[in-house]
Amino acid sequence: MTTLLDLKSSVLRQVQRSQSLRSRREPPPPTASSPLTHCPDPLPRRISEESVEFFERMNTILQKQENMMRAAQAECQRGACTVPPPQEHVDQAFIPDRISRTELDLLYEEAVYTVVNRVGVPSTEHVKSDDELFIYLRKVFDMGEEEHDIILQKVQESKRASFSLRVSVMKAKNLMAKDANGYSDPYCMLGILVGQSPRETDEKKERKFSFRKRREKLEKRSSTKEVLPARCIQVTEVKPETLNPVWDEHFVFEIDDVHNDLLHLDIWDHDDDVSVAEACKKLNEVSGLRGMGRYFKQIAKSVRSNGSASSGSEENADDFLGCINIPLNEVPVVGYDTWFKLEPRSSASKVQGECHLILKLFTCQRDTTLSKKDTNVSIHKKLLSQIVEYEHAHVKREPYNWNGQVSPPAWTVLTHHAVQTDLSPLQQAIIRWQCYSSHHRTQRVCYSLLLRLLRTIDAEWDPPAVRGDLERQLSDSFRLYTEHCLCLMKNMRQVFPCTSAAAITRYELMLRGFGYMQNMRAFKTVCPLRNELHLDITTAVKKGTAEWYENLIAQYKPEDGTLEEQLKKLVQVIDGVCADVQRAQNIYNKLFYSAVKVDFFSISYRQLEKQVADDVNVAMERVCGTLEQESSRLTQTMGETIFELYMSLKILKGFREFLPLKDAKMLALTGFHNWFKSSIHKWLQIIHDRSCDRIRQAVDTDKLQPVQQAKHSSSAVEVTACFSQVREIWHQLAWPDSAGAFIFVTRLTDNFCSEAVCYSEMMTRKIERNQLGRDHKSFTVQLCIALNNTEHVRVFLGHLPRDLDWQGVERAMEESCGVEGKEQVYKALNGQLFNVDLDLHREAKRLISLLTDKMLPELRRYIQHISLSPDSINNDDAVSPLMKYLQDTMVILTDKLVKENLARVLQCMWELLLRMILDAVTENRGVQVEFYNRFQYTVETLLQFFHAKGEGLPLEDMKSGDYKVLDEELRLNKCSSFELIEQYYLEKISHQKTLKHTRFGRISVKCYYDAPEQRLTVEILHAADIIALDANGLSDPFVIVELCPHHLFPLAKSQRTQVKLKTLHPVFDELFYFHVSPEQYRHRFACLTFTVMDYDWLSTNDFAGEAVAPLSDFCWPGRPNASAAGKSVQPVILHLSRSKPSEKPIMRMLEARIGDREAQEFVRRLKEIEKSMEEE
């Protein structure tokens, strides 16, 4: 309720202020306290320059958000950047300890041992030369030549590495069908053939070895070169009824001679209980060399028979499906993982299909110092760390973007060491992750490398394979990397600035890696307690944001200096915050949400918004306290600073639209506008004063020349530009409070209106000053431009309801204060607009009057020419001078005036000409009819001229007002005296019909017509409320009844009733008869007049009132009064009137006709009545 009362008071004040505009239709005397109505001399140059600079500063403030958006877009559209990103500072606790020299020597021995014991076929990426590898290792370990020779000799004297072969029989495909059902029951037998000398190899290169069961005994052989030990023979499971078996079985064979031994594999179709598979199982139960020898001889015999006819004829024998022979010296360093084509035992054998094998050679015993006291995983990790540090140090271009690729010698050493130490792909992946992530904490690498390493771990992950120390080490590496990333997130604004494309790219990759890591199976397994990393990220972001803001405050120090200086520094702080929030929304938030599903923008915005609100609230409390003091005045610079502070806060608050809906409520800046209420009121006054200065300057400098293609001049452009800028200031304020918005909109509307009126008044005075000494044409041109200027500003004001969103204010007030509040808004604002429209029209009329005053002498001369032209001159010649003058003027007006002003000027000229012609006609009553006909022609010519075939004034507008008066005057002056008298009675009849109640009383009569007798009977029944005309307060009334006009009823005489003494309500009840022919009653002006008189004994009778009744009401066929039943009709009540005849134009026209007897007689009788009225 209080709010509604306050709004009512505010509305009343605003309406009172707006009414002052209406009072300016009569300009008050100028006062020094009225800056709008007092238009002093041109402004001093300093004041005008200050106004210009003021609005330029305002424009800069208004464009702040746009500039910020443009800068943000420029950052988002950043191109490739070669400038390295800032250093990623890390706590010293994250930096690992460096390895000692002794440990380096032992590690170097391990590397040399690896090179010396290399096996396998090197790939094209590997280095084949030992010397080249030794040169590289010496550089890596900073090893001198003498130290190298000592270690190399030690390695060469040590025991050579023992190798084993891991074989994985995965599957086969497209095998030959050996069974009747179209399938086979395949199984594999595989073993190692002991190495042979090169000569023996050449002799037997045409033979194919295969495992084959033989029933007969074979001869004893002393040679052991073909003996196949039991540990070297393995067999897979039988896969029934398939041609594409899947085994996925794994075997390990010890290798005696890795350079000459050969892996042999047979695939058989299982047919009966007695088979090679069963024999191999029995063989694995044999103990001792003798038993193994006997079995091998049986196999050898089968080989020598090489598939003789007897073997194919034996019953219950397994069918051969193919074999594979792989020399171990052909196995690549990293092993085989491929499909091998099955081979026949001889050229007569038919086989088909392929078998998928995975082969890998590794050392089962290493004679080095480190291998005896440390694990292979730990040794490989140290070796990789040493090589990575060396390789990274020698990267020349963008070392921060190193993708982890090492040189061929490094890759060769690392590959051989991983193979020799039998490190699984998962172990290698974990080791690489540990090394590179640890190295990254001291020397930056590309985050895509770390992401790639994490993906490798995830792809190879096998929880049972990671236990003990390896699991603990992996957990530690995840923990350290997590803490490292969280530290970088906290300092992200310094480490990953948006100004560096490289830094943002790195940050995106880091977040992607971090997000990938927290979803890894490995991470969830080894770090089960770190399952809420998003909370850690949120904490890091909050802490980093708070620290960044504190650093910003420390940089600008807004608590130092005067109050104005403090506010300016706060503006800088908030602008910095806005820029940071903009970057958060445009860049950082997308990175965080896509990578780790964290709403970075919401976290940082809420943190910064709260801190900014706390600081600004404290500062604005001091400002409001200062402004509330009576002696305090808001200076312009202080006002600009407060406005800029408000705009900066509004920009910051505007970012809430990017928050989730649930987070956008109850923010600290929700009601920040309340801190600025008192300041904004005074700020609007400063804007108003500056606008007035700007308008005055615009008028002073205006040359009254049209700008470009327009018809207004520079001052109109400047005024509307000023209004537009003030309107934009209001739009940017975007005041959210409905009551406050209404007060401010009312204030702004009032300012606009008063400034517009001030401008129009100044333009009028400028024209008034300029008219002296100017010719008619140049003055007309300047006046047209001034009119257009006023109209240009008026049109702008017409858009205020839309520009200031009056409907929005009305809706808001209706919601807060009900329908009454909406009506108050409507009345106040529309009242202001209505008043200013009247004022601007008044000023426009003043300007137009200057034009018409200039034209008046010429127009008067041309009207006089028409009036005095003799009848011998035709109408065209009499009117042509006037029309030529108007045509010349019209050319200028049409060219220089906008459409609205042209219509106004033409309307004023039309009205002026009508008045001038009317004056000429009224001054010449009673002259020849030709005189009036000429002016009638003039009026019609002017009507067509100003109408201009629809391009000018509308005919309905032109034929109103003075036109009707003039047209009636001309028409009546052309009538005869009888016609004027008839017109007089027509007007009285028309007037009688409009009377309802009068103070002169009424008379009751009954009239009826006997058509066959052509007799009109008039019964005067009674009268009531007659006016008192005697001293006793009564009257002695009687009624005179007569047919009028007299020239229509020349034989009819007037009749009268008896006098009724001392009464105001006489009863007459008298009958009167008149002869009326149809030719007479058919005239519209034929009527009965009832004149009520007061009888005086000693003087003339007094006129009490009169009434008329048209005969058409009684005599026309079909009327009830004109039938036989006319006597029974109801009486007619006629109200009396007492008008002065001399006030009628017809009386003046008749009186002017001195030589007309009928006219003079009619005038005489009416004057007698008027005289009796005057004597009363």
Automatic annotation (TrEMBL):
Among the Pfam families in the record, one is MUN
In alphabetical order, the GO MF annotations are: SNARE binding
Ranges of residues in domain C2: 144-303, 999-1124
Compartments in which it is found? Cytoplasm; Late endosome; Recycling endosome
For this UniProt record, give its keywords in alphabetical order, as a comma-separated list. Answer: Cytoplasm, Endosome, Exocytosis
- Where is each MHD2 domain found? 876-984
**One GO CC annotation, please?**
plasma membrane
BP terms from Gene Ontology: exocytosis; positive regulation of neurotransmitter secretion; regulation of dense core granule exocytosis
Judging by the UniProt lineage, the source's domain of life is: Eukaryota
MHD1 domain: residues covered: 643-763
> InterPro entries, from UniProt?
C2_dom, C2_domain_sf, MUN_dom, Munc13_1, Munc13_dom-2, UNC-13_domain
Q: Give the region (Disordered) as residue ranges.
A: 14-44
User: What family does the entry list?
Assistant: Belongs to the unc-13 family.
What PANTHER family has UniProt attached to this entry?
BAI1-ASSOCIATED PROTEIN 3 (PTHR45999:SF1), UNC-13-4A, ISOFORM B (PTHR45999)
Annotated protein name in UniProt: BAI1-associated protein 3
Organism in which the protein naturally occurs: Parambassis ranga
